[in-house]
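step: validate -> pass
step: tokenize input -> pass
step: predict -> running
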Amino acid sequence: MGKRFNRLLYYTVFAAWLSVPMAAVAQDGETGSVPLIRGTLVRHAARITFEWPEPVPFTADVKGSTLTIRFEREAHPDFGGLLSQLYPYIVSAEQTAGGYAIVLTLDKPYRIRSFTSGEVGGVELIGVDPGERREAKGEGTE
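step: predict -> pass
step: emit ->
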């Protein structure tokens, strides 16, 4: 029983040791959706947040109805959730600049405010009308 237990312990430790580099690879923008991107409504603002494994500086610039967010690291986010959560305010999203920037097409021009807190950064579209979202989703205000 002692040899069997030692062998089991050895393989468990070995498997755990192998998984550490694999976890790092999974967080590397090439194999996963990094950063994790979310969209939420907060009063009269549409909040876009980016969650990274470690802090990543970024800049945000809006020109008309185009919001460009540039990161100091390559980004490969999954835009599906963001587009469904913040429709109709964000119409489309794409990567540019070799993955170091994302461009969001907005339904109209908005003022923006950016923020960071540790590994989370974000941009808020100021002045959205939550009623537009209900109408776009077919949830009238009857």
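step: describe -> The longest strand covers residues 36-42.
step: cleanup -> pass
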